[in-house]
Amino acid sequence: MATAALRTAVVTGASSGIGAATARRLAAEGYHVVLTARRADRIEALAAELTAAGHEATAYALDVTDRAAVDAFAAFLDRFPSVNVLVNNAGGALGADPVATGDPDDWRRMYEVNVLGVLHTTQALLPALTASGDGTVVVVSSTAGHGVYEGGAGYVAAKHGAHVLAETLRLEIVGRPVRVIEIAPGMVRTDEFAVTRFRGDQEKAARVYEGVAEPLTAEDVADTIGWAVTRPPHVNIDLLVVRPRAQASNTKVHREL
Ligand code: 8X3
Asked: Which element (helix H / strand E) includes 9?
């Protein structure tokens, strides 16, 4: 894509999983990719790898729950000719407890990263995305943003919040040259999602995917993001739900045990 070389895409949570795969995919599409995450060493290594492969990439350490840091990041982006894409990917689950015993601190932290993190980056970058004349906000929500499951309420509530943010923003900015795309992945096997959720318990994490022939990969989801973002500017993929074939709903998964 000849014009894409001058375009910039920001990916949050780019240190691993869907975020890292999305950064690779958008770099391959010709974007200058700005990778953000808390873990500077990871995004610096990925940016170096992409640069060595002939792509354009910049790493910027960022905690999306820190509003002042997000505002400073938005100012840093002034050096780019335009900011065209923001992929709000940073997020995650903590715990799988029932409502009766869930830890309020987990709920608070999940709301902070999955909802306020998206709010911070979207608010801070919206002026630049609008000024680009062809901006795209991607919210990587989850099927947890579209249906409940037992033991998931804290995460489900937060992801419903991310979904509501995307839907409402689309209504509020209609007429401006900015698309709002929500990608809602179901079961995706990544290195960290389930391990983080179960606080490092590898056995519990492995059980999430037990007997499931082919959970989605981070690359599968990055593929849907790359596809949605590279549609012509007048085409807005409002919501794309993507699950592995073996998962018919949040609570109906085919397992070969
Ligand atoms: C991840 C999907 O089913 O673990 O966002 O909530 S699930």
From this structure: strand 8-12
Say which CATH topology domain 8-246 has: Rossmann fold (3.40.50)
The residue whose CA is least distant from atom 5 of ligand 1 is: 142
Per the structure block, which two tokens stand in for 126? 């919206």
Output the CA–CA distances (angstroms, integers) from residue 153 to 2, 24, 57, 188, 248, in the order listed. Answer: 45, 32, 37, 19, 20
Domain ranges of the chain: 8-246
Q: Is 256 exposed, middle or buried (0-12, 13-18, 19+ CB in 10 A)?
A: exposed
DSSP character for 101?
T
48-84 burial by CB neighbour count: b if 16+ within 10 A, else e? eebeeeebbbbbbbbbbbebebbeebbeebeebebbb
* Contact status, residue 116 vs residue 63, Cβ threshold 8 Å: no
Q: Pairing mode, if any, of strands 135-140 and 32-37?
A: unpaired
Residue partners of 81: CB distance under 8 A and separation at least 6: 6, 8
Which ligand 1 atom minimizes the distance to the CA of 156?
Answer: 6
Question: Confidence band (pLDDT; 50, 70, 90) for 7?
Answer: very high
Please indicate whether residue 209 is annotated as part of the active site.
no
pTM: 0.97
Residue 191 to residue 16: CA distance in whole angstroms: 8
pLDDT tens per residue across span 40-75: 999 999 999 999 999 999 999 999 999 999 999 999
Q: In testing the pocket of ligand 1, which one of 141, 142, 195, 197 has its CB within 8 Å of the most ligand atoms?
A: 142
Cα gap 34→43, rounded to integer Å:
9
